[in-house]
C-alpha cells in the first residue's frame, strides 16, 4: 500500500496560471502535421508522457512555461516538438538571420542529447540545428554558425563566446529554452543565463524546465518569463 501511495504521488500533476490550455491525451490532439506525426511514430512514442500531455498544448499556444518533472519524464520532446511548429510558422525560413530557436543546457552531454533529439524532428523540414558547446573547436563552430541555422543548442558559456565573436545574431530568436535550470544554477551559470536573456528580444516565448525548483531558480523564472503556466509532475522540491 505504501508503494501504491508513492506511485500515486509520483504521478500527481499540478497546473497553475491563468487561461490554461486544455491538456491533451494523444499526439493527434496536438494537431501536429503528418510529417511530425511520422517522426513521433518512428521514435516509437505511442502517447505523450504526463508532462507532455500538459506542456505540449501550453507551449503550442505560445505561452511561457515552467515545467517541473523528474529526469526521464520526457521533457525534451515537450519543447522540441512545439519548437518545430513555431519555426515552420515563421515566414521566409531561408533568410540567414540567425537562429529562431535557442536551447540552453548546463552540460555538453545534455546539449548533445538535445541536439540529437532536435535533429530527428527537424531533419525532414530542412530545419538546420547547430550544437555549440565546449570541447569542440571554436573556429569550426564559428564557421558552422556563420553558414546559418534555425536552431542552436548550446551551453551558456560557449554561446556567449560565439555571440562575442559575432558568429550569430539573435534578432530572429523568438523561442528560448532553458533546460535543467536547477543544474544551470548549481554550475554557476546564472550570470551567463542572464546575459543570454538580455540579448534576446522581449517578445520571445520562454520555456524553463527543471527537475527541482529551488528559490533562486524560482526568482529567475519570475524575472525572465511572462505570465507563465506552471506544470509540475510528481512531488518535487
Ligand atoms: P527528461 O528530459 O525529462 O529527463 P527525456 O526527454 O530525456 O526526459 O526522455 C526520457 C526518455 O523517454 C528518452 O529516451 C525519450 O526518447 C523517451 N520518451 C520521451 N517521450 C516519450 C513518449 N511520449 N513515449 C515514449 N518514450 C518517450
Ligand atoms: Mg532532460
From TrEMBL:
Residues 25-53 form the DEAD-box RNA helicase Q domain. A motif (Q motif) lies at residues 25-53. It comes from the Eukaryota. Residues 56-231 form the Helicase ATP-binding domain. Belongs to the DEAD box helicase family. This is RNA helicase. It comes from Lupinus angustifolius (Narrow-leaved blue lupine). The lineage of its organism: Eukaryota, Viridiplantae, Streptophyta, Embryophyta, Tracheophyta. The chain holds residues 207 to 443 of 775 of the full protein.
